[in-house]
Amino acid sequence: MVPCVLHLENRTREKLLRLILNNLFVIYEKSVALAKLRPLEKLIRTKGFGCPNGREGKWTAPLSKDEDSVEKISLNCGRARKIFANVGTELIEACFPDDAKRRVVLDLVRGYEELMVLYRKREDLTDVEIAKADDLAQETYHRLLTTTAKALRTSTTS
């Protein structure tokens, strides 16, 4: 079975958002993490969703029963794209206070965004674009599976 590129895009964005927000619970005690999460939820509901007339959308991070982690996030593709386009960098900066770890996650997300732009092109890709997409896909998913996982696991040492 070959998944649709848009489903791949959406599931990956949901996973990235969950990993980013969950880092608050890795580096802070639960009460502090929850206090830092609330303004980020508001940021997502307002600037993240790009609501017209400054209206606030309805969204809160799904928390575990013990409220000590963010559970699986479910968003439509348009909303997931808007979050990363409008406030992705702000979320990463808020959830990764360590500069080195923040750069790792920013690089991962930027590479992923560039890859998705290529994948969404409606016209045929040139040979150069195909090679670039292949390289970006390998690099991005390698980072997602290795470097970011290490950065998140070692966040408790910060």
TrEMBL record:
| UniProt name for this protein | Uncharacterized protein
Superkingdom field: Eukaryota
